[in-house]
Amino acid sequence: MIGRRALRRPYRQRQLPAMARALRHRNFRLFWFGQLISLIGTWMQALALQWLVYTLTGSALAMGTVAALTALPVLVLGLFAGVIVDRYSRQGVIIATQTAAMLLAFVLAALTFSGHVQYWHVLMLALGSGLVNALDMPARQAFLVEMVPEREDLLNAIALNSSVFNAARVVGPAVAGVLVGLVGLGWAFMINGVSFLAVISGLLMMRNLPPRSQDNRSSTPVRSFVEGFRYAMNTPMIRTVLLLVLIPSILSFSYVTVLPIFADQILVTSSISAGATRLGVILMANGVGALAGALRVAAMSGDSDRRRYLVQGGIGFGVGQILFALNPSFWLALPIMVITGFSMITFLANANATLQTTAADLMRGRVMSFYVTVLVGLGMVGSLEAGWVAEHWGATAVTIIGGTACLLTTLAASRSRVMRSKSI
User: Fold this and answer.
1) Could you tell me what percent of the chain has a pLDDT over 90?
2) How high is the pLDDT of residue 301?
3) Residue 7 pLDDT more than 50?
4) Do the beta carbons of residue 347 and residue 317 sit within 8 Å?
């Protein structure tokens, strides 16, 4: 009888592991499961798109240019996107951006199936994707507070978001690597387009979203932006985290751009003959590590010292990249990529959580737009740098430079007054 009563209890009242406690919130649960499906499609397309550009051009600079065009709108518009996110319905903004992203995926699939896809098509679609991301990413980050209104569950929700993102990184590339070899690139793009329906449906099914304070709409957008920028720069913790992410976003995270070169030319093994499959396995190993890192963050309590995890993650990420660059073995590269992924997401999830929990409600959209601009927008510069350096000095040099930059930046930031305080 006790067991039957327990089964009839509402979902939010059942005992959940501490690692998954944010899932007791219905709206977040809808969003999380929708993302699980959608992001698998996103990572399938990411691998397929890398391989498409590589087969069309054979150029590292061309791959870097695609990544740069994806990030360009974030760099140009991302700082101001937070003003929109703080003024209008974040739910409505995300529904619009996800619908636009779905249509772009279908266009890419149609071009690929027709056999008429060209490099300039990819560039235009990359630019369109960047326009979508410029608004979608800060809106998605700031919307968490509305789906998870209880502050003690917010850090867990951020970590669970990272976990689903990286679980998709494990599944998506593995599926895409096999799918591309069996039936071609077009199906990866088509499946990605269909997968957006899951997260859009989840957003439409949400109800009882809490009212949120809105920015004063009598203020001009420029004044709202200036207020947000001053707030971020005058808040020591927010300023420190943004600066800590700045250099790695330009020099370190762009290592993904040159992974097809490692898979095709450097980490060659007779066990796996197809370069696309080797790339999928490498990305999957990175995703396994990142997923483990996200789950580690999810298990953290609200009073954990995130300063320590930020520093550990930054150091591990830098060292992992250097080891990956110097290693000639495909099979040894996989555990190195696990460590690199684990460290990277430990670093980023704690940076994200620190900004989310430090920022005032009225400023959260703008603060997260600054974070997205630093992380993704300046990644445009990093992608171009990675492509140029790879063309002239090789993919190994790109990865060593990025790892060294991340390592030195983290060590320098760890000596700042804010980072040395007892709690973060």
Assistant:
1) 14
2) 63
3) no
4) yes
d(CA 164, CA 195): 14
CB atoms within 10 A of CB 313: 26
Residue with tokens 């951020």: 158
Token pair for 105: 């995926």
Q: In which residue are the tokens 């996800």 written?
A: 98
Q: Side-chain half-sphere of 216: how many Cα atoms within 13 Å?
A: 8
CA 34 – CA 38 distance, rounded (Å): 6
Which pair of structure tokens corresponds to residue 319?
């060292």
**Domain boundary assignment for the chain:** 20-206+219-413
Q: Is 358 exposed, middle or buried (0-12, 13-18, 19+ CB in 10 A)?
A: middle
46/51 Cα distance (integer angstroms): 9
Euclidean distance between CA atoms 406 and 225, whole angstroms: 29
User: Which CATH superfamily includes the segment(s) 20-206+219-413?
Assistant: MFS general substrate transporter like domains (1.20.1250.20)
Radius of gyration of the chain (CA): 21
pLDDT digits (tens, 9 = 90+) for 221-262: 778 888 888 898 888 888 888 988 888 888 888 787 788 888
Q: Residue 346 pairs with which residues in a beta bridge?
A: none
Residue 176 exposure: Cα atoms within 13 Å on the Cβ side:
36
From the number of C-beta atoms within 10 Å of its C-beta (0-12, 13-18, 19+), residue 362 rates as middle
Instruction: Give burial (CB, 10 Å; 0-12/13-18/19+) of 352.
Output: buried
Cα separation, 350 vs 81, in Å, equals 23
- Looking at residue 269, what DSSP letter applies? B
Contact by Cβ (8 Å): 155, 8: no
Q: Is 118 helix (H, G, I), strand (E, B) or coil?
A: coil
Is the pLDDT assigned to residue 39 strictly greater than 90?
A: no
Residues 6+ positions from 338 with CB-CB distance below 8 Å: 285, 286, 288, 289, 292
For the chain, the distance separating the N- and C-terminal CA atoms, rounded to the nearest angstrom, is 46
Helix (H, G, I), strand (E, B) or coil at 282: helix
Contact 281, 350 (CB under 8 A): no
